[in-house]
Fold this protein.
Amino acid sequence: MLISFFLELKKFGVPVSIKEFLMLIEALQKRVAWGSMEDFYFLSRAALVKDEKHFDKFDMAFGAYFKGLEAVPALIAQIPEEWLKKLMEKNLTDEEKALVQSLGGWEKLMETLRQRLEEQKGRHQGGSKWIGTAGTSPFGAYGYNPEGVRIGQEGSRNRSAVKVWDQREYRNLDDSVELGTRNIKVALRRLRRFAREGAPDELDLDDTIRSTARNAGYLDLKMVPERHNAVKVLLFLDIGGSMDDHVKVCEELFSAARLEFKHLEYFYFHNFIYEAVWKDNRRRHTEKLATWQVMHTYGHDYKLIFVGDATMSPYEIAHAGGSVEHHNPEAGAVWMQRLTDIYPHAIWLNPQPEDRWGYYESIGLTRQLLGDRMFPLTLSGLEAGMKELTR
Amino acid sequence: MSRFTGTEDYIATEDLMMAVNAAIALERPLLVKGEPGTGKTMLAIEVAKALGRPLIQWHIKSTSKAQQGLYEYDAVSRLRDSQLGDPKVHDIANYIKKGPLWEAFEHDAPVVVLIDEIDKADIEFPNDLLRELDRMEFYVYELQKLVKANKRPTIIITSNNEKELPDAFLRRCFFHYIRFPDKETLERIVDVHYPGIKKALLREALEAFFEMREVPGLKKKPSTSEFLDWLKLLVAEDISEDTLRSRDQTKIIPPLHGALLKNEQDIHLFERLVFMSRRRQGN
C-alpha cells in the first residue's frame, strides 16, 4: 500500500532501499506507530533515512505525497542578488548557463522569480508555502539548490502534526557533495600500499617459532605491527579564479581523499606553483608556506597530486614575474622542475574536459613539465592516475 | 511491550521516542547522531534505566577492532603457560576473553548495548559487524561454537559524524538525529537537572546562550551539556540575572564564558562581534 510513497521518495532522491522499506512495513505491522500521521512521519523517517542531510528531501517527498504539495527547490527573496548569482555560476553546468541566457539572462530570470513570488503571496494567504512553480519553472528545472536558501515564510508557529515536515528544519544540512564521493573513494583505494608500521601488537608466528627454536625451546615471543595503508600523499589544489567552476568536483575529491589516506597533507596555490603555497585560504596572504619548506619537510616517498585546470597565460608558467597575483622572482616552471626532481611520483589532475586540453598552450606546457602525467578529473582519469602513482 | 517515554532525568522529544520504540519493537540497532553534547550517550543509559534492563557499554577507540566486541583469543599467555606447564593450557576456552557483544548475547533477559562513538574506529569496523548486528550471532573459531543471542538485545550506536558509515551498515539500523533542542525543550531539560533554579536567571541565561549559538562562524557551538555546566557555575558563583541582562553594555562577554566557548579563536571572534555591535549602538 505504501509502494507509491516509496517510489515518491526515490523520485526525490532520498536513497532508500527495499530492506529499509520492509523494515518500515514490519514496524507498522507491530503497531509501533498507529493512527497518527505524526507518528508515522517519525517512524518512517527513522526507518528510511539514514543521514540528516537527506531529511530535507524526505520532508519534501513526504509533503508531496501526503498533501500533493508542489515541491521545488526554494529560493529566498531577501538574499543579495550578487550572492545568488555567484552560487548560480558555481552550481550550474554549461548547458544550464546557456538556458539562463536563452531566458534572457540573469536580470530577466530574477524578474520572473520576483513576479512569481508576488503571485504566490496572493494565492496562499499567509501560509508557509514553497514556490510551487510546476515543471515549467526555470527554477524547478535546474534542481539548483543553494544552501539554506528559502523563500521567507511567514512564521507559522503552528506545531501541529502535519506542519513538521512542512517546516523543513533540516534545510541547511543537505550536502550533495557526498553523492559522488563513494566512487572516488573506490578509485583512490587503488593507491593503497600496505605496510607494517607503528606499535608491534600482532603475534608474528613464524618469527616466534624460529626464535623459540633458536632459544633452545624456551619461548621467545616476536611481535609485528599491524598492516596499514601507508601511502603518503601531498595534495596541491588550485583555488580561485577559473577553478570556481570546478569547486564541486574538487570538494568531492578532497573529502574522499581525506578519508582514504592517513598521511595526507594538502596545500593551495593559485594557477601555478611558485615559491610559496598556503594551507588556509582565509589567511593566504599572511600565512604563506615556502615551497622550499614543503620540499624539506616531506620525504621523497610522498606522492604528489596537483589539482588544477592549468588554464592561464603561458607566461605565468614560463617567465619570472609572470604570476597574476604577485611578482615571482623565479618562473613557475623552475619550481615545478624542482618538485618533480625530488618527488618521482607526481601527477596532475585536470578538471577541464580532456578534449579541450589542446586549445590551451598552458596545459600543453604543464603536461610537458610533468612528463605527460596529466589526467582528467573523472573517475577513469583518477584510476589511470592512481595506476601511474603506484608504478 | 515496553515503551520508552523518557525518564525523570531525560527529556526525549517525540521523534526520538518513536525511533527508540521502533528499535525496541523490531529488535534492530538504533543509530543516534547529533552535535557533541546533546545527550547521545545518556540516551542509552536512560533507555536501560527506563526499561529496567542491564546496560552493557562498549566504548570505541581509534584502535578498536570489531573482533574485540565479540571475543579475544589470548595466544600469547597460552604460549607462556605452556612453557610453565600450567594445566590450564589444555583447554583453549581458558584463553578466550568474552567481549561486550558476547556478554549481551548470553543474557537470558534482553539487555541494552551501547556502542559509543562508532565513527572513531577504523573505516572497516562497521562492515565487520554487519552479520553480528543483523543475525545477532557469531562463530567462535577457536571453540568451534556458534554464539547466538538468547534474546535480541536493544543496541544503541552513537556517532559524531567524523567518518561516513557504510551504506550496508546503515540499512540495518534505525536512525535518529538529535537536533539541538529549542527553547521550551531546553527549559524542560534544565528543570530536570536543576529543579530549584530561579526562573529569571534561567530566562536570561537562555537568552544569552541562544544568542551565542547564533553567532556565525563559531568553531564549536556550545551545546546542551555545556549550557548545563554553565548554569551550574552561574548558580555556584551566585551571579544575578541583572549581570546577565546587562551583558552587551558593560561586559564584553557573558560571565564564566569558559564553560561555553572552548577555544580561543571562538572567544576572539565573539569579543570582536560584541565590540562591533557596541560601536554601532554608540553611533
Observations:
- Strands of chain A lie at 194-203, 223-229, 232-238, 263-269, 276-278, 288-290, 303-307, 346-350, 374-376.
- Chain A touches chain B at residues 15, 17, 19-20, 23, 26-27, 30, 32-33, 38-39, 42-43, 45-47, 49-52, 55, 169-170, 178, 181, 203, 208, 218-219, 221, 259 (CB under 8 Å).
- The two ends of chain A are 55 Å apart (CA to CA).
